[in-house]
């Protein structure tokens, strides 16, 4: 793979972009929203406009003798859209696609984006396998391919703000759990081995997700998502959100809202019928927060302490 390098195209690379883009459209006509017939008639000015757009980066993978891959990273509100992804047939299996995706993700992080999004044709198993390996998950949004509406495609996203917790995150998570009057009474030393044992159980359970928010390399938020099977609602799955915390240094900045919206989107994409949570009766600010997000206080909750 050392012979493959990535080059960012500039305004003087009109012919280079046109050649590889048209080759991609010819090679994989059902992979793109546009068509060869449409773009072959673009004027040099239209290709130059693509390269000159300040919100877009066009990257080519090359071995020094031929261009072997293409991707565009376009900045949009709240994130970066990965599009126009293509790898030449003769370069497949050489991790060209992996290099291109990694560079888009790295560029998005450097720009402060919170998410990378893309659309992929449902039948493109090779591309889907690559995106899954990189951490992309379905958002639940689907549509017909604009160039061929009978071909289905789905949207995938990679959060650059939220990720699965790791064992080394446990002390920071426990510190956030303890950072309020209720938590201060029930939490202990973050180094207590019982926390790591609990983390190991959560991490091993495919129906549990312990999520953290990371900003600037620091863990500043956390929540746990549990997916519950049940017979009610025709056997529908539910998503339970628990232990939602935001570090005191980040409160009042909208992070909690982003966390819950991300969790709801994740549950919807998974096919859950309901998202539910509980909040202590003394947390009146939290109640107003959940009300503003569309949650309804529809049930009375009961607990029985066993120790």
Automatic annotation (TrEMBL):
PROSITE patterns: GNAT
Keyword set, alphabetical order: Acyltransferase, Transferase
CDD domains for this protein: NAT_SF (cd04301)
Record Gene3D superfamilies: 3.40.630.30
InterPro entries per the UniProt record, alphabetical: Acyl_CoA_acyltransferase (IPR016181), Bact_Acetyltransf (IPR050832), GNAT_dom (IPR000182)
Taxonomic superkingdom: Bacteria
Record-given protein name: GNAT family N-acetyltransferase
Species this chain originates from: Nonomuraea rhodomycinica
């Amino acid at each position: 793979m050392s012979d493959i390098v990535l080059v960012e195209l500039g305004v003087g690379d009109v012919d280079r972009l046109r050649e590889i883009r048209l080759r991609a459209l010819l090679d994989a006509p059902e992979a793109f929203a546009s068509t060869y017939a449409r773009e072959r008639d673009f004027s040099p000015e239209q290709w130059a406009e693509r390269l000159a757009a300040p919100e877009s980066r066009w990257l080519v993978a090359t071995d020094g003798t031929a261009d072997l891959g293409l991707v565009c990273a376009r900045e949009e509100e709240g994130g970066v859209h990965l599009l126009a992804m293509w790898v030449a047939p003769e370069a497949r299996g050489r991790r060209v696609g992996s290099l291109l995706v990694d560079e888009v993700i790295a560029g998005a992080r450097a720009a402060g984006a919170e998410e990378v999004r893309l659309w992929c044709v449902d039948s493109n198993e090779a591309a889907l396998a690559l995106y899954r390996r990189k951490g992309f998950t379905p958002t639940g949004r689907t549509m017909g391919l604009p160039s061929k509406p009978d071909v289905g495609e789905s949207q995938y996203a990679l959060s650059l703000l939220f990720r699965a917790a790791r064992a080394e995150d446990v002390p920071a998570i426990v510190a956030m759990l303890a950072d309020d009057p209720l938590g201060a009474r029930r939490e202990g030393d973050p180094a207590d081995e019982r926390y790591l044992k609990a983390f190991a159980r959560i991490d091993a359970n495919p129906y549990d997700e312990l999520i953290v928010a990371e900003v600037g390399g620091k863990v500043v938020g956390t929540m746990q998502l549990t997916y519950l099977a049940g017979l009610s609602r025709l056997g529908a799955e539910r998503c339970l959100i628990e232990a939602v915390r935001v570090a005191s240094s980040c409160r009042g900045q909208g992070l909690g809202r982003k966390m819950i919206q991300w969790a709801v989107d994740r549950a919807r994409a998974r096919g859950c019928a309901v998202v539910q949570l509980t909040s202590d009766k003394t947390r009146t600010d939290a109640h107003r927060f959940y009300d503003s997000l569309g949650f309804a206080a529809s049930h009375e909750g009961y607990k029985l302490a066993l120790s």
